[in-house]
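Support request from a user on the community tier.

User writes: "When I paste my structure tokens into the form, the page sometimes reloads and wipes my input. The last time it worked, I copied everything first. Here is what I submitted, just in case something in the input itself triggers the reload:"
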């Protein structure tokens, strides 16, 4: 059969495609003109209207001020998205170390596009009260909220501005509480490994990031909301996805300067909002049940965060509301799930990426076997405290695999903070510390880039070089070790994080052979956040 081409259709089709191309070109040109005019307007705004904090005219800066050259300033603010780590190191070497002076660091994170980086000599200021008699006041809350941009995810501002749940952590998860929580997390960790990693003596390959994170997040979730919901697979998965989407979403939102966020942030936050509402929906019935019991006068209940929270709000009807309580629990998922997962997974990858992994594992195995025999497992805080090499490995991993480039944020909210040398900082300025550079400074740690697993425990084991004093443990912040912050607001969850990570590491070392699949994973910085190697693979098998 002969097919005759349908000319009547072909001709308009080519005309259509030309028209479509013209439309496309027109729209693209329109979009480019709109973006360029928008950028130009912003440059003018930077030059003429944006109020610049007076302190930034007095301090050194890694880059020139907007008054010198607005386009260069705008370019460097944009570059901060992928170069914050490099800029922070440059400023640390030039100003913090060489001159012991604060410096201005450009960033898309805050209004005015600049934060003030304090030198290590100002670390003792972190022990001062938030409110001083001279009327000066600062807070760490604004920086914590802005890291995850909670305001775009949680509509009820009371949750993140009135942080009652921080007090609950302080009251119930202090060092003295660890012995009470140790048996619960030890059991949960064992059950988590058996359910998730299994007892197969054949090698199997898993995603190293998720696989290790799952175990530790299950233990954390158990302390947060208790059984049986803490073991619900859907609940566990939702909480991990929520914590991750909140943190990653926050990191992306922070790459947009504040004046652009009203367009971008609500869209980026949708993912975290979705998982948050799923999590809250699953939790609310349990909270309601417990509120009923509480209202009937039953004060006692499961020993978990949810119950501690309810007891604290018992006499406060405004706070004793199921959805509000569930949201408070959800807002703790980032430190509880994401931060512990981040640190524990990084530690496993650091051990197995090290050229000395065999020696590290042999050292850990010797210690875990000995301590387990002495204490009958790791169900007491005495047993966990005896794991000095495990402690050292985790502390060293936190040092080399920092979660953020800079940390310990303090925003001035009233009066002026005196930094000495005639430098006074007024409201609206965010100050922070170059923590990653402090952790990688050769004056603080010899051979700082090396992951030296027993760096902190070795001096106390070797009879020839027996050091004075005591080994520095994960939960002990010092001016050269600040992944948990330092001073008055140092993380109140650090004893729990340290204890559960040590229990999990000990179980893993004693029961599984693990190997890294592929080359050692790399991490990179997105603005202030170190993006972890979420695709890293490991293979594992139950020890025969
Ligand atoms: C390895 C895991 C963790 C890391 C790396 C971490 C890190 C931090 C850091 C850097 C701060 C800010 C300190 C400051 O501003 O001076 C902080 C504060 C805080 N963390 Fe953690 N954290 C972890 C685990 C936890 C856990 C498990 C909890 C709760 C159960 C928790 C609850 C808190 C709270 C409530 C604050 C606010 C303290 C305050 O404002 O006074 N964190 N954490």
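"...and here is what came back when it finally went through:"
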């Amino acid at each position: 059969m002969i097919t005759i081409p349908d000319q009547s259709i072909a001709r308009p089709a080519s005309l259509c495609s030309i028209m479509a191309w013209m439309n496309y070109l027109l729209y693209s040109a329109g979009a480019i003109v709109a973006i360029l005019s928008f950028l130009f307007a912003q440059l003018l705004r930077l030059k003429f209207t944006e109020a610049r904090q007076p302190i930034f005219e007095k301090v050194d800066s890694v880059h020139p001020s907007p008054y010198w050259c607005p386009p260069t300033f705008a370019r460097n603010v944009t570059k901060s998205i992928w170069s914050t780590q490099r800029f922070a190191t440059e400023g640390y070497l030039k100003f913090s170390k060489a001159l012991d002076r604060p410096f201005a660091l450009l960033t898309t994170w805050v209004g005015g596009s600049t934060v003030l980086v304090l030198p290590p000599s100002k670390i003792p200021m972190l022990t001062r009260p938030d409110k001083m008699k001279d009327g000066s006041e600062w807070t760490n809350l604004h920086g914590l909220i802005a890291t995850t941009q909670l305001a775009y995810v949680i509509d009820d501002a009371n949750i993140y501005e009135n942080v009652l749940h921080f007090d609950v952590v302080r009251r119930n998860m202090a060092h003295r509480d660890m012995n009470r929580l140790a048996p619960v997390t030890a059991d949960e960790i064992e059950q988590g490994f058996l359910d998730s990693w299994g007892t197969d003596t054949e090698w199997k390959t898993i995603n190293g990031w998720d696989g290790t994170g799952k175990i530790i997040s299950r233990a954390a979730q158990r302390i947060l909301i208790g059984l049986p919901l803490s073991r619900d697979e859907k609940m566990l998965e939702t909480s991990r996805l929520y914590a991750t989407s909140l943190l990653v979403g926050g990191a992306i939102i922070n790459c947009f300067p504040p004046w652009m966020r009203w367009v971008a942030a609500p869209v980026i936050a949708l993912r975290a909002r979705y998982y948050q509402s799923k999590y809250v929906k699953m939790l609310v019935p349990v909270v309601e049940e417990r509120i009923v019991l509480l209202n009937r006068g039953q004060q006692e209940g499961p020993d978990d965060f949810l119950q501690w929270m309810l007891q604290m709000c018992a006499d406060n009807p405004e706070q004793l509301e199921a959805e509000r309580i569930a949201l408070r629990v959800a807002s703790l998922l980032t430190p509880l799930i994401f931060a512990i997962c981040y640190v524990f997974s990084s530690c496993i990858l650091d051990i197995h990426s090290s050229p000395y992994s065999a020696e590290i594992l042999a050292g850990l195995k010797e210690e875990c076997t000995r301590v387990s025999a002495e204490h009958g497992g790791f169900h007491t805080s005495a047993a966990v405290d005896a794991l000095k090499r495990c402690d050292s490995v985790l502390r060293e991993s936190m040092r080399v695999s920092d979660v953020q480039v800079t940390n310990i944020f303090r925003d001035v909210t009233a009066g002026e903070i005196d930094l000495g040398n005639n430098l006074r900082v007024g409201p609206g300025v965010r100050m922070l510390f170059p923590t990653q550079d402090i952790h990688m400074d050769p004056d603080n740690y010899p051979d700082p880039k090396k992951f030296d697993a027993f760096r902190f425990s070795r001096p106390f084991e070797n009879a020839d070089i027996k050091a004075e004093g005591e080994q520095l443990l994960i939960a002990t912040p010092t001016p050269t070790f600040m992944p948990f912050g330092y001073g008055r607001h140092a993380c109140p969850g650090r004893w729990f994080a340290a204890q559960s990570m040590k229990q999990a590491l000990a179980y893993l070392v004693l029961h599984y052979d693990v190997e890294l699949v592929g080359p050692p994973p790399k991490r990179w910085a997105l603005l202030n956040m170190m993006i972890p190697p979420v695709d890293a693979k490991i293979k594992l098998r139950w020890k025969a």
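Agent notes: The reload is a front-end session timeout and is unrelated to the input. The pocket of protoporphyrin IX containing FE is lined by residues 140, 166, 169, 173, 332, 335-336, 339-340, 343, 403, 407-408, 483-485, 489-493, 496-497 (CB under 6 Å). The chain has two domains: 55-148, 164-403+442-479+483-542. Escalated to web team.
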